[in-house]
Amino acid sequence: IAGITQAPTSQILAAGRRMTLRCTQDMRHNAMYWYRQDLGLGLRLIHYSNTAGTTGKGEVPDGYSVSRANTDDFPLTLASAVPSQTSVYFCASSPKAGGQETQYFGPGTRLLVL
Amino acid sequence: GQNIDQPTEMTATEGAIVQINCTYQTSGFNGLFWYQQHAGEAPTFLSYNVLDGLEEKGRFSSFLSRSKGYSYLLLKELQMKDSASYLCAVRDSNYQLIWGAGTKLIIKP
Lengths: 114, 109
Description:
Chain A is mostly beta strands.
């Protein structure tokens, strides 16, 4: 594989259920990010990781958690899904945090919470 | 608060030129990015500006004025495949990207 992969592509989830969105990159990028994209709003940062073993909260972290056990993987977990978490979720990575580093995006996961 | 403003939608004709504006108010400035996003797809990088002036890359150019909190993306010789949303994003003092809602560009033959 080359780039960033996300799984699943789409999911319908009952409210209250736990769900983990998977993200894997093979570019050996240090920094990784999770965004949500909602109609009429810009991408909003949920959580980020500047390097393996560290994570930080973004603009909208409530209801979500992440882990970064290694360089390649950055899963996002919804502990108890709510309908307001219906969105398109994008994982992204960059060689390092900051500077002119470009972020590269995965194909996205479309999540519907009922 | 932090704010990125872009027009919601623009329409242009194939072969023409279009300018998409972006104004920003952020806590600090560490660069401005333009991304392209086709419907149902992921954003892809177009350009980066950190100093005032014009950056040209083929049919696309991006301009920045830090004193005015203003940027624009200029697309020349428009093609039907340029129909997409164009996202403006500013890297703030915490080195996080703050994103505009995007401008949907519709190209007509």
